[in-house]
Specification:
The chain has 19 helices and 12 strands. By secondary structure, it is an alpha+beta fold.
Length: 560
Amino acid sequence: MDTLQYILNTSPYFPVLVTLVLGLIVGKLTIGRFCLGSTLGILTIAVIVGQVGVKVDPDLRWIFFGVFMYVVGYQGYYQLVGVIKDHKKSIIIASILMSFVPLIVVAVASQLFDINIYKAIGIAAGSFIHPEIIPVATETIQQLVGLSNQTKEIAINELYIGYALTVILGIAGTVIILKWLFPIMVKRSNTDNYINLQRDLFFSEPNKGNCVNTVGNVVRRSFQVNVHSTVIGKTIKQLNAPSVDVTFELESNDKDEFSLITTGDIITITGRSNTLYYFDDNILGNELPLDDNQCAIEEHTMVMVSSTPFVGSKLQSVKCKINENTFREVCVTQVIRAREEMVLTPELVLKKNDVIQLIGHGVDIKLAGSYFKTSAEDVWHHQLLFGFGLVIAYLISLWHISLGSLNLYFSLGITSLISGAVIGYSCNKNIPLALMPKEISNHIRRLSLGGFIAISGLYFGPITINAISDVGVNVFFIGCGIVALSQLVYFAICYSLFMRSSSAASASYARKTPGAGSGFSDPYSQYLNRSVMLSFSISYVSSSMLMLILVSSALNLISR
């Protein structure tokens, strides 16, 4: 044991790394249909490793928590505004509930089981993982008049014991509810909501959406030119010139794009389904079935109009320019401006920061995309801005406001969430395609949450065990009951609030989602899940300030 303790304490970060690796492995293990999950796996391993006697700085976990909330805001910057608008009343009610529910449950338990006010405050802070209450309550206790220094030390010790008894339970309970119970409830609710929304969509005309759906958006057709075809005597070059969202190809080895089209030639067209729908027989010729080679999947890319030559140019001229050196034509299937899809016409004038979707052969896509390369300087500025937002969030969290005997601290969670949303919005507005790839930001979000859980378990695991031995198992089980009851009551009420307020917002979103038939439920579910999760996140960080006021006011009231 001494050797293991020595190895783990060779570096303050080594036990965190060991906990993350082992926790992820344990979380992936499956027994039948049961899987612990990465978060609970990390927490379990952290509590076990913590018993060895590792040294870890508990304040380090708030850096990880700040990064986690920052990435949540960074990824959901645009939806965050919509969530606040759609769930405004629900979020306010949820924030108040998160502040009052644990305090009310603890107050009732205090009367039933004779728990003193200081330990009760610690239990309330641990129930929903609100550690910012501890330093504020500690400072308030130290300023209370009429208490001796010894009494203040005892009160502060009771405060920490109450928090230590419930913080691990608070983390585990929240994870279980959000990771297991919440998805089950959403899945069941989605069935009814999906049926209702499909009925609404059936009787209304859906709008075009903002999502890129290359599978359902792009098709390929082949025609053999006959004597009635309207393209006889023309060239492929002439057919491609006026079009922007369709590509014409001549399937012949002895003819090029300048050769005249004759009877018997085979022409293949690729483009948006709603455009190709109008190419009936005798416009190009008799339609033929596609062979395997002709059904090759097209590649696509998203590019941004940022260079001066293309800003203010018509879409048709831009398409001609980027196809000067391509083997076959690349077509434009979508133009997005300020997150709104534009109607594709040859006369559409492009503006700076317009995002264009290109479809074509892989080699041609690379050639066409080279005209839209984002400069390394722009990407460097964006990366600098990403880090700068983290620093600003941390610095703001160090400030506090004094209102008489009341000290209000800015939670790192809320400053990071707001800062991440602002940075994400700013980057998207100026350099939308230079945003950090979603895969990378997802890994950062998961790793930062894992780091927060790991350090919390490593530090508070041994403290919880010691607290149980000091106060007895009965108090620990009382804490378990308080955490379970307060969390279940809170999440049950808030889930109902958020789901009810999500109905209209989800219906609006669904009407903007392409393919409202068989593929509709997935984007709807994703929107609904993320919308409710963001609502929970906003409620959590916004409730911390109110809970600080309630705790400080209660302590000052008792001292009088």
